[in-house]
Amino acid sequence: MADPVGVDGVGPAVADDAAAGYGPPDPSGTEAPRVRRRTRLAHSVRFRLTVAVVLVVGVSLLGGGLLLTRWVESTLTHDLRSRNERVLASMADILDSGNVPTELFSTPSELSGQINDQMSSSFAGRARDLEQVISTTYFYLDGQAFSQMKVRGVDSDGRLVLFGRVGPALPDPTDAIESTRSVPTKWGDLTIHAVSPLAEIDRSVNALRAALWIGLPLLVLAAGAMTWVITGQALAPVGVMTRRVRELSSTNLDARVPVPPTEDEIALLAVTMNDMLDRLEKASVKQRQFVSDASHELRSPVASIRTQIETALRYPDDVDWPSVARTVLAEDDRLDHLVGNLLAMARLEEGRFGPRSDVDIDELVMAQRARMSDVSLDLSGVSAGRVWGNSDELTSVVRNLLDNAARHCRSRVVVTVGEEGPWVVLTVADDGDGVAPEDRQQVF
Q1: Cα angle at 169 between 167 and 173, to 5 degrees?
Q2: Number of structural domains found in the chain
Q3: What CATH number did the domain enclosing 408 receive?
Q4: Among 141, 176, 197, which residue terminates a domain?
Q5: What is the tens place of the pLDDT at every residue in 369-384?
Q6: Does a structural domain hold residue 394?
Q7: pLDDT digits 0-9 by tens, 60-100
Q8: Between the CA of residue 28 and those of 24, 25, 35, 245, 298, what are the distances in Å?
């Protein structure tokens, strides 16, 4: 049977995760303090994501609402100012044509309550253009004979109807938009003032603000609620995986977490966790097998020593004590060898390696010749082979291979050492039955 191995391979491996302490918790309760199982609400991803969305949406909507209010107010103000300018242009054309009735040059007290229905036909075309603004726009002429006029309506023929009187008082300049134009007429230079109150704009803007004050919080709450629900649904598989992993122990490492059908990061996490559980299960199986094999190997020399001592003590006069001592020393050497292998494997699992140097593999093989006196050892195929490694660890490798071959051979063991390119190949073969094919994966 041939047992080719790499020069750095020392015994079976125990999984890194199990050796590093990533296995199930110690049921004795002596383990280190663990992370709290229940995460505080304020620290949960779901809560933090919801708060972040609420803040972002809230600030965005608040800024958008302020900009919208300013834009609506600015647009309405601009439209009102443009309307004043159009009205002034219409009135200036009328005054410039000299068609203002002479009755309007009476004193305000004489004109109070009089309706002027004898206005020039030149008003007819413009009156309809002014129909939409007459209720909120005031006109007054600052001239020789009168101080103020106010648009009151349009008659059935579409002509502008005025009341020539002093009241009512014009709005405060801060509550209105005033446009002014100077018009030269045959009566002298007259100044036309178009004053439009801002009350309608204020009502529109206030209505918009009220709608925003009601609508924006509702939108923010809706965004927060939607985020809370969506993140809850997205993170629900994480909760299932957490509960499943929490239920795992050394007795049911074959359990796996469910993989959601979403094909997203959560599904990838579930697949990764299942891969980790596969490795842990394999490591646990290897660890149990290793403990079982080590116990069996240790039991044999211990039982042999016990049998030899008990027999010698029972028949002290008939025992060859030097032979008993040699047998006990041989079994003790075997025990020391097994314990040394266990310690070497423990160091390898922890990633601790001894000092390294150039080691001649052929010399390590030759040094074992004296121990192999019970079998026929063929070393004719051993040639020079030097590697970089730890001498003690490589000695354990060579000893293990030769001991296994001596234990399972019929009478003969053949050892070869040689260089193949950058590699040094050590082969140990015996004339025993060998390892069954179905057991080779587990043994090697």
Answers
A1: 155
A2: 2
A3: 3.30.565.10
A4: 197
A5: 877 877 888 888 889 8
A6: yes
A7: 999 999 999 999 999 999 998 888 888 778 777 776 776 65
A8: 12, 9, 17, 19, 28
